[in-house]
Amino acid sequence: MKPFAYHRPTTVDAAFSLLTTLPEARLICGGTDLIVQMKSGIHAPEALISLRHIDALRTIERDDAIVRVGAAVPLFELRAHEGAMSLFEALRDCLDDFASEQIRSTATLGGNICNASPGADAIGPLLVADAEVEIRNGMGLYTRSLLSLFTGPKKTTLKHDEIVTAIILPHPRPGTKSVFAKKKRVHMDLALVNLAMSWRVTTATEDGLPVLQHVRIAAGAVAPTPLRLTETETLLEGQPLDASRIERAVAHARTEVSPIDDVRTTADYRRHIVGVFLNRFLTAIEAS
Amino acid sequence: MTTRSSSALQVSQPLSFTLNGHVVHHQVAPHALLLDVLRDELEHKGTKEGCGKGECGACTVLVNGRPVNACITLALEVEDADVYTIEGLAAHDAHGRALSIVQQAFVETGAVQCGFCMPGMIMTTTHFLEHNPNPSTRQIRVALAGNLCRCTGYHQIIDAIALAARTNPDRGGA
Amino acid sequence: MSFRYLGLDAERTDAANKAIGQTHYIHDLSRPGMLFGKIKFSEHAHARILNIDTSKAEALPGVRAVLTAANTPEVRLGFLRDNFALKRDKVRAFRDEVAAVAAIDPDIAAEAVELIEVEYEPLPGVFDPHEALAPNAPLVHDTDARGRPVTTNRLPLEFAHESGDLDDGRSKSVHIVSGTYTTPLIQQTCMGTAGCIAEFDTHQNLTIWAKTQIPFLAQRDFNRALADMGLKGRNSRVIVPALGGGFGTGLDTHVYEYLSILLAYATGRPVKVLYNRDEEFANLSPRQSSEVTITQGCDAEGNLTFRDIHVLQDNGAYASWGATYPSVMLMPATSLYRVQNVRFASDLVYTNNTYAQAMRGYGNPELTWALESNLDDLATAANIDPVDIRLRNCNQPGETTPMGLEITTCALDQCLEQAAATIDWDAKRAANNNGATKKRGVGLASLIHVGGSGRIYRSDASGIILRLDDYGNLYVYSGSVEMGQGLHTAVTRTLAEATGITPDHIFINQTDTATCPWDVGTHASRGAFVTCNAAILAAAKLHEKLFSAACDIFPAEITKQHKKRCADADHHLPELANLSPDDFHLLDNRISLKSAPDHPCAHLPVDRLLRAMHFTDQGQMITVEAFYDPPSVLPDWEKGYGNMSACYTFGTQAVEVEVDTETGDVTILDVAIALDVGRVLHPKALIGQTLGALAQGIGYALYEKVHTSQGRIQNPNFTDYKIPTAVEMDFPVNIHFHETNDPHGPFGAKGIGEPGLTPTAPAISNAIFNATGIRLHHLPMTPESIVSALKTPSS
Q1: In chain C, what residues touch A272 (CB-CB under 8 Å)?
Q2: N or C: which end of chain C has fewer CB within 10 A?
């Protein structure tokens, strides 16, 4: 790597102050993406500001309304937090399968979000949980929806002097369930495609068909940014879930994504798998 | 335009941490990676570089009890941390053996072939068994997914970990 | 036959050191004053080099040498002498080396490489062997090694065979099936990457610590390079550290080794060149790819009537060992199962792609992939069970095959039956998958491989030196290479068995051309076969010397000992007069009489004997040597004829799979392996080799491929070149070793390093066919290819 200066602030204010005085600095937390990119020369910042040692960014808080996950919480700690994991099953399942034990020692939600890979595993489960990000900038703190953060592959709305400080997850409504699926080549792999979904089953119809409410579907690695399949969600929202509706939803989901061919797999296969995963999610709901 | 070249010309920063139970006071360049500092500056060659990207696990060391890929860890991040490498494993084991229980199990089951992946594999295993004293073989395999081996096909490694779990006197029970 | 050591499990001699991180690989070694070398690679697949400007690199502080073809003697390499350590006029692939730098640290060397400016005139490239054979295709090489113009990209190498009468075979066929099968470039991905340290002494002799499997052929190659450098008559010493994996990567000498030598000579200092993983993926020669077209026929009963095979290989830019895969392909092509009418032809073609070297199996997995897939299709056409058709055509001991391979021991029929029974073939073949999303099936495939080395050079020998010291320690010097396969342990156990010295007194020295006798190389699964055979010969010589000396020394020492210790004992010593060497044996470090092995006083610790021999007038110490050359011949490759090995290893793998027809995922549920190994020398090591090879076979079958586009490797990293993790190998494996006790093997053992991956891909493919009815022709059998095949209406 090209040499750089290293800073280790212990407060968010100190980190912010460094950012504003060092225009060529980057923030680093677990570094599991950034260090790899710096080693291949994709980034060569003149300074790194480590967020790892800021206690305020490493807490997980749960109250009656929200779960607030500090942006610098290592994923293994998040996974061990029963209070958070019991509410967000898709996120829990995603974390069980996230890279490797070694990566989970230092990787963070903040890092996964700011790296903004369209296929980032954690983002889908957060999207279907209506996550918001809390951001610190020159004017203080503000929040925005996670979905609105992404503008393109590895691109976000974040300006140089903005720090993601937390991910805010509203408590799911009672009866909400969520699932996560990831298509890989071997067990330690990034996602060829990932799909997350959350929903509530409200009533059953006279025929015993479930009716879905608050449907959220998020797909990764199938578009320039992580994607909510809002049209497919609309197809399902408030409707009885029978085989014909499942078929329509699956067919539509396949048109709602815009995957590409790359060295990992083909656009056709990604599109195909989106449908397979959604079909499996929905069929399981219908069967239960 | 000057190129930022030669680590020798950079200002280095102090780094203090505990390495295999002994306190180390060192100076490192800010961009130095933990793996390179361990191997080239502190002469602990046991930890290996397999890929440099955190993909293969050959460089796994324990930092504050957690396995990390030393190849993508800045050395300065272990300031004040408790670091264990393969060299310190027998010392880490509370029973005063020359080989830790995990190391001895790897030797016994035939899990060691070329040996290059072994330090990383053994460090990951050591952490895993401390937190999972009675694992299923599936759990073992998933825990090792970040440690690649090209020689063994993993089978005898799984046997070793199962053996280490059974023979661990700290396990409790029979 | 009961053994004290062989066939029993024991800790490997090198395992503890590896488990505590005390084994030193090339990555861990350094020499005083050492510099670091880095290489500048081409930016084009095919281009003329117009100019190389090294001035900025030379000016960088810390740089000690910058080499290009302009300031360096020309060093050619490769068995066709078509490659150069530094490219002068043209680059022919992205990995072509155009400059090399030595600097005081690797970062400075890398920076200097970036500062070298090369001006190219791009040329049209050719990246497909079919296109490269077309008239008017761009020529990768305009001339041969002697400067004579060439007009084709086809390599001037012939590997061919024809025996029997193909037309007659065709005419007798009731069923004929053809298919074309491909295999991709595969990366060996040793966990320890490639590297070396080169160092000259003041007399300009070279020492090179090399990650090699061929120390002596490397010595030959490097001596030739020294001659090219104006140092004719100077010598190379090749020292082999712990490898960190071989799998064939060490069977060639590599450009990076020559560059480290040139840099060491230019700077007068030791130079280390080490590939990091990125460099290794992009620039180290991978496994050769192949396109095999095969036709097989059988009569109504399923007897094979003929076999016609053509192999096309994309050779890449230069000829390395990938070009010789057809020499090994001849073996299964002519000799896996019995078929009298066989034709084999091959075409090797230069392209501007990367070029290939050896990898485990060396052409056998490629050919077996095609042959065993096609044979199952033939069985389907003939409506014969795949096990039955193989049993019907099974090789038998005592036969000579069309290639002239003399089959000594062979338990292939038992292996077929064993594997099929273990996988529960009959029940599982008949399983009904109708309507299921996840379909199950079983398939199997067999292998033949060289079991008694494979003669590919004018000597196939392996020498060994044994030396005893005053303490009864046995020092072993062998030119063969331990690369993790367990060779040193096998040799130690064999010597313990053969000499009677216990394993804890046996020490194997580092492989070093200055101290060890010649060995052609550790390849062809030959390590234990040749080294242990040499060890047994040497052990006999050791006994001869020991027991000759014992004739006089034993009586004297025993009598002395008896007087001292047993003065008042009741027992009598056995007859000690007129002893001959045959009267003695050595067991557990003690010499005793065969006639009275349990006599409490009639035994002598061997170290006492050795000191008595040494510390006397005209004293002697014992060193013996043996040079073992297997009974085999160097084949005529153009005729495809010659018994290239002393014996042959056979086996069968049966696999049960589950195919998810929606995602295309293939899950392996069960594997049964039956292997005719001659003799199990060390069970856990043999299991380890078999399972490790299986994992490579599974990677080959399902996951691995080096993707290239216009000559550039697209996935030069573990992110996108996926090898199996522990999770992919989560299935039961049942292994049965058949001990046929081959007359040529050390204690009957045959070579086993490569057989484990040879039949894996076709076994899996045959299982997929049984499960789904789809026949795949291209490796890897990815989920995408399975989904695609399931969507295609079958013809």
Answers
A1: 787
A2: C
A48 contacts in chain B (CB < 8 Å): 30, 74
Question: Is the pLDDT score of C795 beyond 80?
Answer: no
Give strand pairing partners of C592.
C585, C603
Burial A113-131 (b: 16+ CB within 10 A, else e): bbbbbbbbbbbbbbbbbbb
Residue pLDDT, tens place only, C307-354: 999 999 999 999 999 999 999 999 999 999 999 999 999 999 999 999
Three-state SS sequence of C402-452? CCCCECCCCCHHHHHHHHHHHCCHHHHHCCCCCCCCEEEEEEEEEEEEECC
Per-residue confidence at B97, pLDDT binned at 50, 70, 90?
low
Which residues, in sequence order, are CB contacts of C366 under 8 Å at separation 6+? C183, C288, C290, C292, C311, C325, C329
Tell which CATH classification among 1.10.3470.10, 3.40.50.300, 3.30.465.10, 3.40.640.10 matches the domain A55-170: 3.30.465.10
DSSP of A74-138, one letter per residue?
BHHHHHT-HHHHTT-HHHHHHHHTSS-HHHHTT-BHHHHHHHT-TT-TTHHHHHTTT-EEEEEET
> Which residue from B30, B63, B72 is facing A36, i.e. has the nearest CB?
B72
Q: What per-residue confidence (pLDDT) applies to B174?
A: 37
Cβ contacts of B31 on chain A, cutoff 8 Å? 1-4, 6
Where do the CATH 3.30.390.50 domains begin and end in chain A?
A: 177-287
* Residue-wise pLDDT tens digits, C399-446: 999 999 999 999 999 999 999 999 999 999 988 888 899 999 999 999
Nearest-Cα distance to chain A for C115, in Å, is 15
Query: DSSP state, C140?
Result: S
What's chain A's Rg over C-alpha atoms?
Answer: 19
3-state secondary structure of C766: helix
Q: Do A186 and C727 touch (CB under 8 A)?
A: yes
Specify the pLDDT at position B167.
93
Sequence ranges of chain A with CATH classification 3.30.465.10: 55-170
Chains with ≥3 CB–CB distances under 8 Å to C = A, B
Q: What CATH number belongs to A5-50?
A: 3.30.43.10
Q: Which residues of chain A are in CATH 3.30.43.10 domains?
A: 5-50
Task: Tell me whether residues A187 and C723 touch, CB distance under 8 A.
Answer: no
Q: Which string of b and e fits B77-112 if b means at least 16 CB within 10 Å?
A: bbeebebbbbbbbbebbeeeeebbbbbbbbbbbbbb
Please, which pLDDT band fits residue A202 given cuts at 50, 70 and 90? confident
pLDDT, residue C474, reads 98
pLDDT digits (tens, 9 = 90+) for C748-771: 999 999 999 999 999 999 999 999
Give contacts of B152 with chain C, Cβ < 8 Å.
688, 691-692, 695
What CATH architecture applies to the domain A177-287?
Answer: 2-Layer Sandwich (3.30)
What is the ipTM, given to two decimal places? 0.96
The mean pLDDT value of chain A amounts to 97
User: Which residues, 6 or more positions from C706, have their beta carbon under 8 angstroms from its beta carbon?
Assistant: C184, C185, C186, C187, C281, C286, C354, C713, C715, C721
Q: Which residue of chain C has the CA closest to A262?
A: C714
| Helices of type H across chain A | 12-21, 34-39, 75-79, 82-85, 89-96, 101-104, 109-115, 123-127, 230-236, 243-256, 267-287
Q: Using the Cα atoms of residue C724, residue C725, residue C731 and residue C733 in order, give the sign of their dihedral.
A: positive
- Tens of pLDDT along A6-60? 999 999 999 999 999 999 999 999 999 999 999 999 999 999 999 999 999 999 9
Q: In sequence order, which residues have a C-beta less than 8 Å from that of residue C737 and are 6 or more positions away?
A: C675, C676, C677, C680, C686
